[in-house]
Task: structure prediction
Amino acid sequence: MPPDTGRTQDAAASGGDALRHHPDREFDMLRRAVLGSAILLAASLASSTGGRASTPVRKTVPIVSRPGVWQAPVGGRQELLWAATVPLAKPDSGNAPEETGNGSAIVGGRMWHWAGSITRPTMTVFRPQGRNTGTAMLVLPGGGFTVVAMDLEGTEICDWAVRQGITCAVLKYRVPQAWPVVNGRRQRPKVLLGLEDAQRAMGLLRVRAARYGIDPHRIGVIGFSAGAYLAAAMSNTEARTYPIADAADRQSPRPDFAVIAYTARMLDDSKGRNSLELQPWVTISPKAPPTFILHAMNDSTDPIRQPMAYALALTDAGVPVDMRLYAKGGHAFGMRPSADPVTREWPGALKQWLRDIGML
Result:
């Protein structure tokens, strides 16, 4: 969250040249477009009318943003992925200072908050409450590759995870990064900054396993929307997307299990409505880990064919898949309780699945 709608993605991509020429003005226009009207569409929850799902308008609040580095809540330790002296590629916002703010949509009766203009990626580690299972989970929030939804799809997921005895790490990855449009078709950036950051975080968790009290072979990933795409990309390759610099980069970047929540950017929708062909940049490996996929049938931002295409491709490759579909829920519901069954049921379903695959 916010949305991965065609409207905002195309706007983000087509604005790439403008961002290079007028970074501050154009980025602010892009950010406000994504966080405003488009978020309202993406995060809307469905209601039932005459037995059919519809997408009502949600309550909204004004968007408020301010310069400042996102701070971890009590219980979390925020750590840089790379030393401050290591040069890193900049996001589209260039050297603009990091900022924080709230989205316009109210989710589960509350605002949600984001971090943006991120040049120094971090992970925030939360230790388990009570029994330590030795399992760890890297959380990749959504945000349309424009911002990172730090609470709704980040720290709140860790609140649940630590109660299950899981060590949890929330990734604050580099954004914004537009996906370019070539001949009218959106393309994946050649260098995907969020994927670099996710792979680095996985390596750090493994190399520091003793420090965190975790099993280096029981580290999974959970991603939401844009973060779900990153989780899928991590699952299907052992190759790092940046040069190896230290011991952390020599660890496997592939997770031991994956949770894919309302994923985006998988389906090649140019093939027609009945096609389930994946985008050319999506690769499938038979070595991908067991995967739990979650989606709402009435998600108008990322339609149901997105996860279906990915689930079928994994199954064809022999990868174990557990796919949970719900009639209502819309997009970007996180774990906040709502009137829809999805938010009441999917955390329990995930817990049972983790038990089934031997992670709890």
Summary: The mean pLDDT is 86.
